[in-house]
């Protein structure tokens, strides 16, 4: 049987709540809030890994296992929704930065060419 401690379930609950907040931030294009929430989720993930590595084995109840499964499924659904909003923005930023790099290269090329004339 799978092992689960109440502390682990509480962390999954908090991660799910933060994930829902990340979806809202992504929908609102509030990138600063999204980054902040993601950092909180990352800290919880680290804590969860530490608990899993150092804790004594506790047998989980079926209801706890089902709740954990549901939370993980919701987090994955939220992740897909977040990506749906962030990937177009990231593509735009990549294009913008790529365009700026090309403009710098062109300016350098013209500057070098005008020095030789």
Question: How would you portray this structure in words?
Answer:
- The chain is an all-alpha fold and 117 residues long.
- The chain has a single domain (6-91), classed as Methane Monooxygenase Hydroxylase, Chain G, domain 1, CATH 1.20.58.380.
- 85% of the residues lie in helices and 0% in strands.
- The protein has helices at residues 6-27, 31-54, 62-115.
- Helix 1 packs across helix 3 (62-115).
- The mean pLDDT is 85.
Ends distance: 79 Å
Annotated CATH homologous superfamily = Flagellar protein flit
Mean pLDDT: 85
Low-confidence stretches: none
Rg from C-alpha positions? Answer: 23 Å
Indicate the structural class: mainly alpha
Write down the oligomeric state.
single chain
The run of helices and strands is: HHH
- Which word captures the global form? elongated
The number of strands is 0
> Helical element count?
3
The level 1 CATH classification is Mainly Alpha
Tags for this model:
3 helices; 117 residues; mainly alpha; elongated; 85% helix; 0% strand; single chain; Methane Monooxygenase Hydroxylase, Chain G, domain 1
Summarize this, please?
The protein has 117 residues and is mostly helical. It has helices at residues 6-27, 31-54, 62-115.
Write the layout of secondary structure elements.
Elements: H1 6-27, H2 31-54, H3 62-115
């Amino acid at each position: 049987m799978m092992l689960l401690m109440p502390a682990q379930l509480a962390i999954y609950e908090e991660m799910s709540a933060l994930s829902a907040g990340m979806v809202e931030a992504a929908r609102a294009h509030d990138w600063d809030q999204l980054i902040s929430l993601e950092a909180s989720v990352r800290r919880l993930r680290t804590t969860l890994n530490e608990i899993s590595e150092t804790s004594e084995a506790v047998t989980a109840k079926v209801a706890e296992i089902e709740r954990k499964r549901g939370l993980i499924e919701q987090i994955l659904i939220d992740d897909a929704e977040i990506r749906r909003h962030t990937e177009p923005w990231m593509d735009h930023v990549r294009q913008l930065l790529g365009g700026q790099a090309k403009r710098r290269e062109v300016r350098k090329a013209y500057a070098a060419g005008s020095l030789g004339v």
